[in-house]
Amino acid sequence: MTEFWLISAPGEKTCQQTWDKIMTATTRTNNLSTNNKFNIPDLKVTFSSSSSFYKSFQRAVMSFDAVHSVVKKVAQYMADVLEDSRDKVQENLLANGVDLVTYVTRFQWDMAKYPIKQSLKNISEIVSKHVSQIDNDLKARASAYNNLKGNLQNLERKNAGSLLTRSLADIVKKENFVLDSEYLITMLVVVPKTNYADWQHTYETLSEMVVPRSTNLLFEDQDSGLFTVTLFRKAIDDFRLKARENKFTVRDFQYNEEEMKADKEEMTRLSTDKKKQFGPLVRWLKVNFSEAFIAWIHIKALRVFVESVLRYGLPVNFQAMLLQPNKKNMKKLREVLNDLYKHLDSSAAAIIDQSAMDIPGLNLSQQEYYPYVYYKIDCNLLDFK
């Protein structure tokens, strides 16, 4: 299970006592969850009043959903780029070189990226700018690669499918045609396999000017065959009409060696360009997924810190904890947590409609509310199973 509950509770005499208490309640006497301490450093709190504190909090968390969105977009695009190797997507979605569960359970604040001497607002802006740059780069790279991929797919579709519509460049050869003749022309006709015998018996009589014994089968797919037939140019319209009446389809095709060569060269070029871009693009996605995911978890940590200060007060004294619930015991785990911490906010247990909450500075309308600080972290970021 890739779902985690990131919670915090106020320190008792020591934060270690808070930790020991939850371990006893959820792990040592039962099997409700696997727990890890979640290390959040003492971030800079320099608010002169409650109102400025709330205001700065709102600014600090405004990028939260946007960061999560970018993380998911990079992960999903990785899956799109890997195409037939989607089973390998998860092994490429790493954070700091380790799998996501390991990164989250062993989380350490990155002091180099997000200096804790900076204000909460500044840290949030650093995250926002970094992730916005990733998002913009992703859009540009995805657009370029998708255009290339789309053009290649269009050409590939032309070289596949029914004989009625597909490109014939890789099927016909120069020797199949009468070329440079003032009077004669070779045409290509698609004949259903069930009508082969009819074609052989009737093609010479579809027009008065068909060259006898001039038909040859060049290619066949599951349903039809592609035949040549040579006739006089002035009989083209009459031949085409009679062929259609007999359920034979004349393809509009003129043999042009230069055009067919150009089509083949274009497909080769696009295929080569796609292969050249694939490796660097996957590497970029791996690096920037890691960067975005790390930023997302730091934003989670930032929210836990700020909300813990809002709820439990200053000086900073709380224990952040990461719980990985046992799927079968999630309801029981929630009950145990509520029993442990209901004294922190007795009204929380009775809250059903989240909109009933009105804590200044906190927008909880889209979030579950409990007596303890709670945020969910779901490491399953892909939309397919």
From TrEMBL:
CC annotations in GO: lysosomal membrane; vacuolar proton-transporting V-type ATPase, V1 domain
Report keywords, A-Z.
Acetylation, Hydrogen ion transport, Ion transport, Transport
Gene3D superfamilies for this protein: 3.30.70.100, subunit c (vma5p) of the yeast v-atpase, domain 2 (1.20.1460.10), Vacuolar atp synthase subunit c, domain 1 (3.30.70.1180)
Any GO molecular function = proton-transporting ATPase activity, rotational mechanism
Task: Give the function comment from the record.
Answer: Subunit of the V1 complex of vacuolar(H+)-ATPase (V-ATPase), a multisubunit enzyme composed of a peripheral complex (V1) that hydrolyzes ATP and a membrane integral complex (V0) that translocates protons. V-ATPase is responsible for acidifying and maintaining the pH of intracellular compartments and in some cell types, is targeted to the plasma membrane, where it is responsible for acidifying the extracellular environment. Subunit C is necessary for the assembly of the catalytic sector of the enzyme and is likely to have a specific function in its catalytic activity.
Quaternary structure (record): V-ATPase is a heteromultimeric enzyme made up of two complexes: the ATP-hydrolytic V1 complex and the proton translocation V0 complex. The V1 complex consists of three catalytic AB heterodimers that form a heterohexamer, three peripheral stalks each consisting of EG heterodimers, one central rotor including subunits D and F, and the regulatory subunits C and H. The proton translocation complex V0 consists of the proton transport subunit a, a ring of proteolipid subunits c9c'', rotary subunit d, subunits e and f, and two accessory subunits.
Instruction: Give the protein's recorded name.
Output: V-type proton ATPase subunit C
**Organism of derivation:** Sinocyclocheilus rhinocerous
The upper taxonomy is: Eukaryota, Metazoa, Chordata, Craniata, Vertebrata
What gene name is listed for this protein? LOC107724997
